[in-house]
Amino acid sequence: MNARTEFPAAEPAITQAALSQLSNSHLDALEEETIFILREVAAAFERPTLLFSGGKDSLVMLKCAEKAFGAGRIPYPLLMIDTGHNFHEVTDFRDFRAKELGADLIVRSVEDSMARGTVRLAHPGESRNVHQSVTLLEAIEEFRFDALIGGARRDEEKARAKERIFSHRDSFGQWQPKAQRPELWTLFNTRLQPGEHFRVFPISNWTELDVWQYIARENIALPSLYYSHKRTVVERKGLLVPVTELTPLRDGEQSEVRDVRFRTVGDITCTCPVESLAASAGDIVVETLSAEVSERGATRMDDKTSDASMEKRKKDGYF
To answer: What is the reported pLDDT for 11?
Structure first.
């Protein structure tokens, strides 16, 4: 009798509905964790604040805060440290969203720190982005904040991948990587000494893809810069630098108009777009699936030099 080879039956194809359900379950878990952390901060600290730039990550966090507490009932103010060189589309949207939610918005400016003499630029064209640390620490002292909730994610950059969700900062606002507290079983140590505070990152475990899937699912409105638009740019060191009054053409450079979008938004002097035709959150989800470079690696000029490395800046009091 001839031997007969048995092959396992083919697995049924995963349907689009099943994939959608799987994605929603994953997003539900991330949302639940974020809401838990936002409520934990409200319960554990006396004077917390939510860092709100008007960017996509802070808008996702604000959406979770709205779900956690309700519109008009977020129990802590929103805080933005403005370099004075932010895209107006972002700051206008920041003001609109805060007003729409009925949230208190506090804005402190690097330019005010420059006027006080606490920030001094090496030259007029120097990026102010790194100097936000000074203005932030001044705001912490002014309002006596004991917890600052930020939208940083571990997948953005290697220094952020090392940081805890509840990140202890000393009385100088400094992060000490070797002195981090364990966070086993989602138990957070919130003990503080006088003058110390915490930075709290509720969306640490989200990825860029998670953020865009959540934006698409929840239909979260964003500044227009995040979607494809035509912009005059110049190629410089592998990045597309927007041509503006703050970032003009250099000798011998040629500009061109391209279809671009911003993966992250920040100070004009150090934030670059990427080439893209993505006009919706769904389009960006598809693009993100094939992205080979992190959003900061593809778009931030200030991360390219060791003097401005994220870990050094965080030790100096940066977000």
So the answer is: 42
Q: Concatenate the DSSP letters of all residues of 37-106 into one string.
A: HHHHHHHH-SSEEEE--SSHHHHHHHHHHHHHH-TT--SS-EEEEE-S-B-HHHHHHHHHHHHHHT--EE
Position 306 scores a pLDDT of: 43
Q: Which helix (H) or strand (E) holds 168?
A: strand 166-169
Would you state the structure tokens that stand for residue 59, as one six-digit string?
Answer: 């808008």
For 239-256, letters b (16+ CB in 10 Å) and e give bbbbbeeebeeeeeeeee
> Measured between alpha carbons, how far is residue 213 from residues 60, 131, 201, 210, 218 in Å?
11, 33, 19, 5, 9
Distance of CA 274 to the CA centre of its chain: 17
Domains and CATH numbers, the chain: 18-209+308-315 (3.40.50.620), 224-302 (no CATH)
Residue tagged 């403005």 (tokens) = 82
Give pTM, 2 decimals: 0.86
Burial class (CB in 10 A: 0-12, 13-18, 19+), 72: exposed
Q: Which two tokens stand for residue 266?
A: 């920040």
Contact 170, 176 (CB under 8 A): yes
Model confidence over 130-175: pLDDT tens digits? 899 999 999 999 999 999 999 989 888 766 667 889 998 988 888 8
29, 108, 127, 132, 263 from 115: Cα distances, Å: 45, 13, 16, 14, 32
